[in-house]
Amino acid sequence: MNREELRKKYGKRRVPHEWRKTDWLTTLVVTFFGSGMSPKAPGTMGSLAAAVVAYPMAVLVCHLFEFESYIVVGSELFGLFINLFFLAAALIVFFAAIPFVKKAMKDTGTEDPGWIVIDEVCGVFMALAFIPCNLIVEYPIFLVIAFGLFRFFDILKPLGIHRFEKLPGAWGVMADDLLGGLYAAILLWLGTMIVFLISF
Hints:
The longest helix is centred in the C-terminal third of the chain and has 31 residues, at 169-199. The termini are far apart. The chain is mainly alpha-helical. It has one domain. Helix content is 66%, strand content 4%. A hairpin with a 6-residue loop joins strand 1 and strand 2.
């Protein structure tokens, strides 16, 4: 076995450099400011970066708006609290990222490479869509739970998520994470309601 073969087999894992074939703005967007360039678990790093960024976003919403940034579907006690800010953030990221993801894959000749993590950002924001911003600020544990639940759905892709992954091009890259985030949001809301009922 020659030196090159030994390096390939036993050398340190390096960040794939396909992203260098596209422009810097596209790279910045699809890697979410470089978080997707991690040589290990780039999807986890991108999701973690989104969860970290979500906290100051929630703080900003609480400080800028005196009115509640959510609407309640059903009872005030046990209804579905729709966080308009994070729901809008998830949808904006979803549609805004499509052309960037499409360009990144076309320029680099790849299909859903690991360093594209803007889809994970979309999923994490969606996972917070049923928790009011004031609760996120007061109890940051919601960010940890949302992150964990989303990664569960993102990795295992149950309940039809894998079918959305098969949508053509950039739509498939983004859609499965949006759905995974929705499932995570539902579970997080249900868990919150159960805890509230037990302590009520």
